[in-house]
Design brief:
Length: about 450
């Protein structure tokens, strides 16, 4: 990518577009009743996906942008799991019981902060409340620093077949600057143990743009990581938003790389991964050529949801736990962020919806455009003409942001097709923003484009 494009767009704060509209557009006018109605509408529909948010960690990583709480005690976790178990029953009942499920994802926080028997009990609740398909995928996010052999055994015995391990960086200088000390040996022990117990697909999360990070330290991290041969990598740019995440104030801002340095780090990581035999998938994922994610990318069937790039094509994603966001055909629904408020509502028998968004035909069209751009770096508006009852070509008219991107060589418009230039694919979020009716009007900071 040219330095001119990085200078112009690299510092722009843009959504990651794991949904459209994005969360800042959600309103508290959409609440528990609307969510209940949406769940009732699922009866007789295709399989759903489930997301369970476990918002607890033993220590705070200073770069973290997730909703999580630090606890040294187990009591808050036990109380939370009890409430989540009740929420699962409420949602299952509202959806008519035995709703088919083909994907389950445990996120955090640190889901493996649970004890093995607690995880087993939670999985039993899920399988008793929903109709798991035979080939159901069960994925768990893992902190290798605290993963025990007993927990690995429990994961394997309870159907977990995918795991995402937080790595971020193996550079000890960077690790100290972000308060996350994690050795290569800890990571290796985790992945070896997981594979021995039936976890057939693993992912490593890496981050660039961290304090004191350099191109060389990024390359060194990749070279160590690929020795363990995870099936996938997710590579994210650090989003420094200390206004929203106060613990990020502990990071030395003077040690953060600028937009050009961030871009150099991202491209160095990408080059190293491609050289190691991984296929670039979308904006920031990489996978081995025979991995389902790479296959979906090549065939044009890649999707994007709150977990990032995915092969999951379900219209329904049900979120459980504090702050969890779900997507139903009717729209988006988010639970209360505060654990206390979430628990209070569930305990009183009310679905803990704090806010949401009811989709219009135009929203669904814009969502489809943005998803294809994010997944394929191009979109054919003619092919979308009858998908939402709204002529998509109208989105190309009087679009000043799109015109500017065309002028800068970021995209080309060929009839009804919009294509992101190969040397500017890192700017795809800026292209997606050109079709976001809310962008710039919600007063919310996002992560940098580069």
């Amino acid at each position: 990518m040219s330095d001119a494009l990085v200078d112009k767009y690299g510092d722009a704060r843009l959504p990651r577009y794991t949904s459209y509209p994005t969360a800042p557009a959600f309103s508290d006018a959409v609440g528990s009743q609307e969510y209940s109605n949406g769940l009732a509408g699922l009866r007789g529909t295709g399989p759903a996906s489930l997301y369970l948010h476990i918002p607890f960690c033993r220590s705070m990583c200073w770069y973290c942008g997730c909703h999580t709480t630090i606890t040294k005690q187990d009591a808050p976790i036990l109380d939370y799991l009890e409430v989540m178990t009740k929420e699962i029953g409420m949602v299952s009942s509202a959806a008519g019981n035995n709703l088919p499920v083909k994907n389950v994802h445990f996120g955090g926080g640190t889901p493996t902060i649970m004890k093995p028997h607690e995880f087993k009990a939670l999985m039993m609740t899920l399988t008793n409340s929903f109709a798991f398909e035979n080939d159901c995928t069960v994925a768990v996010e893992i902190d290798p620093r605290t993963l025990t052999s007993e927990m690995i055994l429990a994961l394997g015995e309870n159907g977990v077949n995918r795991a995402s391990l937080g790595v971020q960086s193996f550079d000890p200088v960077v690790q100290k600057a972000i308060n996350r000390i994690q050795t290569f040996g800890q990571t290796q022990a985790a992945i070896v143990g997981l594979r021995a117990h039936g976890v057939t697909s693993t992912n490593f999360d890496l981050i660039y743009g961290l304090p004191h990070q350099t191109v060389q330290s990024c390359v060194d991290t990749v070279r160590l990581a690929v020795k363990l041969r995870p099936e996938r990598f997710a590579v994210f740019g650090y989003a420094h938003v200390p206004t929203f995440k106060k613990h990020q104030r502990l990071i030395d801002e003077s040690a953060l790389p600028d937009a050009r340095q961030r871009n150099e780090q991202a491209e160095a990581i990408a080059s190293e991964l491609v050289s190691a035999g991984y296929v670039r998938v979308g904006l920031d994922h990489f996978a081995l050529p025979d991995d389902q994610l790479a296959v979906a990318s090549a065939s044009g069937t890649l999707h994007r949801n709150f977990q990032g790039y995915t092969t999951d094509d379900s219209d329904t994603l049900i979120g459980f736990g504090a702050s969890a966001i779900g997507r139903l055909p009717a729209g988006y629904f988010q639970n209360h962020v505060a654990i206390g408020r979430y628990a209070e509502m569930v305990s009183s028998g009310v679905l803990p919806t704090a806010k949401g968004y009811v989709l219009t035909a135009e929203d669904k069209l814009r969502a489809a455009v943005i998803e294809r751009l994010m997944c394929d770096f191009e979109v054919d508006f003619g092919a979308l003409s009858n998908t939402a009852g709204y002529d998509p070509r109208l989105l190309l008219e009087r679009n000043d942001r799109l015109d500017a991107l065309v002028s800068d060589g970021v995209v080309t418009v060929d009839g009804s097709r919009v294509l992101v230039s190969k040397n500017a694919r890192f700017m795809v979020r800026a292209v997606a923003a050109a079709f976001d009716a809310y962008f710039g009007s919600l007063g919310r900071s996002h992560s940098k484009a580069a």
